[in-house]
Amino acid sequence: QVLLRESGPGLVKPSQTLSLTCTVSGGSITTNGYYWSWIRQPPGKGLECLGYIGSSGTTVYPPALKSRTSISRDTSKNQFTLQLGAVTPKDTALYYCARVSSASWARDHWGQGTQVTVSS
Hints:
By secondary structure, this protein is an all-beta fold. The chain is built from no helices and 11 strands. The chain has strands at residues 3-7, 11-12, 18-25, 34-41, 48-54, 59-60, 69-74, 79-84, 93-101, 107-110, 114-118.
């Protein structure tokens, strides 16, 4: 069974960089046929995709966040990491990592989510 677990600070100051790590067990992030994604849900709002990293390391970001978002990976630890720069209180959200099937584009495995608050 594939399990994902988010980790990182729960509180980040405005203008700083938010950094979260997703640790994957039960499956390799280099396995073909899957992307690994970061998603967030601000309070009272819907889900927002922050980007993907593929099995080969290729990354894709939504245009609105591309300038301050970076997703990287450590294959030796089977982890992938989100960095979101120049955060503001609007970046306060529940952050999730998830696996995405490239065949169906369905997010078939999710982490439990981690709350990140941006505040001074």
